[in-house]
Amino acid sequence: MEEEKETEQNDQNTLESQPNSQPTTLSKNAQKKLLKQQKWEAKKAEKKAQVKEQKMKEAERKRKEWEERLSSCASEEERLKLIESRRELRKERMEKRAEEKKDKLQRLSKAKEFGQNIVIDLEFADLMTNSEIHSLVQQGLVSCDSIAKNFAVMCEMALLHLREVGGYIAKTSDDCISLVSGLSIVDNRQIMYCYAVNRRCTSPSHLWLTGCRGEMENQLQRLPGFDKWIIEKESQSYIDALQDQKENLVYLTADSETVLDELDLKKIYIIGGLVDRNRWKGITMKKASEQGIQTAKLPIGSYLKMSSSQVLTVNQVVEILLKFVEIKDWKASFFEVIPQRKRGETDSVELQGVDGEELENEDDPSDTKKRCIEVRSTQ
With the C-alpha atoms ordered 262, 263, 268, 274, is the resulting torsion angle positive or negative? Predict the structure, then answer.
């Protein structure tokens, strides 16, 4: 009898020492998101393995081809000449890349005086979690695999520990999905992407980052070569940094009644840098109205309809503007930048909420990585 009582007491102590041992039950919506993420991860891993295998095969093919060329040489002198010619070819390629880099830097410097001014407003950091800020700036420090494997546990931790974060209260598992997914579910690198795309343009624009302070600045400083970027970095608000040009400020917001038909070199176009816009609908329009500055929205609805989500990322909006500066054609710019999965075939369909105001991490991480690699490798 005493042994049974002792066993019951031990079991009770075990339960008390582990009050939250069971992970929080996910809602159906959260489970669907998790399943979708797991499928995406599996597909990504498979694609990564295929690309790696193809690269290895190509490297092996080139190695064998080179060895065959060397072995086919009739004399040692001919062999040495072949090796030297290869070295010269490599040298020429390196010199060409250096010259291209120099030209790009010169174009960026010239854009500071003659280019179209585009501002990314980073003053919304207090409305975002650190993970969402990380998503906007770079995203990718935490592996997606580790998040997928421990997703339920992380949601439970979020419910237990994440309360008021940046003015937002996490109450449900779906709220925590939003918070957790900001870590690195999608490899976005939005601001880094914007700089990389602008750097490659034949007619680059003059990019600004305003409100660059606090956690936002800390995250930006982690980007490779950020200090060397040819870009304006202001800790002040754009309203203060550009106070002498207030009449030329134009905030791109979905709630504006003004449709942007052309880009004016005298104007300074502002894009709101805010992840999870759905929590703060109309915030950029309200901000612009209170500051007494102009607003406008992109004319996407005049040229195409969206087949899925009606939101664009910061980098997509920036790239659309950059493309229009280059080709002066809105329709071509939209079709060039907006992923096919997000747009339909019919033109001239009225849209709601499609412009620089709302953000969504829907870029293909592999594509974004390819476009950002230039910044990493050439700083």
Answer: positive
Q: Which of 284, 287, 250, 288 has the alpha carbon at shortest distance from 267?
A: 250
Q: List, in order, residues 6 or more apart from 133 with CB less than 8 Å away.
A: 125, 215, 216, 219, 275
Cα dist from 8 to 1, 5, 14, whole Å: 11, 5, 10
Tens-digit pLDDT profile for residues 181-238: 332 222 336 788 888 899 999 999 999 999 888 877 887 887 778 888 888 998 888 9
> Residue 161: inside a domain, yes or no?
no
Segment 93-145, tens digit of pLDDT: 999 999 988 898 889 889 888 999 999 988 765 545 555 555 455 433 333 33
Please state, in angstroms and rounded to a whole number, the distance separating the CA atoms of residues 152 and 147: 9
d(CA 176, CA 156): 8
**Residue 280 token pair:** 């703060």
Q: What amino acid occupies position 243?
A: Q
What SS3 class is residue 365?
helix
Q: What's the count of helices (H) and strands (E) in the chain, helices before strands?
A: 14, 8
H/E element, 56: helix 28-71
Tokens of 9: 């007491």
Residue 172 CB contacts under 8 Å (≥ 6 apart), including other chains = 27, 159
Lowest mean pLDDT among 18-32, 34-48, 153-167: 153-167
Q: Is residue 154 part of a domain?
A: no
What is the 3-class SS of 197-262, one letter each residue?
HHHHCCCCCEEEEECCCHHHHHHHHCCCCHHHCCCEEECCCHHHHCHHHHHHEEEECCCCCCECCC
Tally of structural domains, the chain: 1
Q: 237 vs 209, 228, 375, CA distance in Å?
A: 9, 22, 26
Domain annotation covers residue 303: yes
Sole residue written with tokens 């609805």: 301
Q: Are 267 and 248 in contact (CB under 8 A)?
A: yes
For residue 276, give its domain range.
116-129+188-378
